[in-house]
Description:
16% of the residues lie in helices and 44% in strands. The chain contains one helix and nine strands, in the order H-E-E-E-E-E-E-E-E-E. It has one helix spanning 2-33; strands at 52-62, 71-75, 88-96, 105-115, 122-131, 140-148, 154-162, 169-179, 186-196. An eight-stranded antiparallel beta barrel has the order 1-3-4-5-6-7-8-9.
Amino acid sequence: MARHFFISSFSPIFSIFLILSYSYITIPILGEEYNYVKQVDPKKMGIVRKEKLSHFRFYWHDNVSGPNPTSIAVVPPLINSTTAFGMIDMIDNPLTIGPKMSSKIVGKAQGFYTSSAQEEVGLLMVMNFAFSDGKYNGSTFTVLGRNTVLSKVREMSVIGGCGIFRFARGYVEAKTYWVNTTTRDAIVEYNAYVFHY
């Protein structure tokens, strides 16, 4: 009985001892975990210019039908879904300066979209805007976000980029210009506001 009293009366001190011992043992180990990170001078990475905000306006052509579709379903939707829930389309959509496909192509939207809503037509968009024109040739920025297709204007995030768009951030606004409800072909106007160097 006395032995039980002895252990219970010292248990708070013993608990503190264990906590301190554990901290002493784990702190050096955790400190070593972060030795792969270091501060970098942006000038050494070639970032010597001031950040600027650019506005891009182009048209996104989602061609689902015809002999050369640029959007292909890789996963079909659920059979009983009214919103095409579960569908995944892979895209390689042209980006043009005007709404007609015959206008100048400035790049491609490459990625996928998936129907991710069960109660409305809502897409998850994951795509790179890969440019092929002028000083932007070879540069991309990445768009990620929710696209409620039946809304007049949809907003999605610019979450990064490469080339001229390294460290890019911003947003895009998508507005449907034209859609064929039978074939699902669509033309969408995109206005992108991108901070970059």
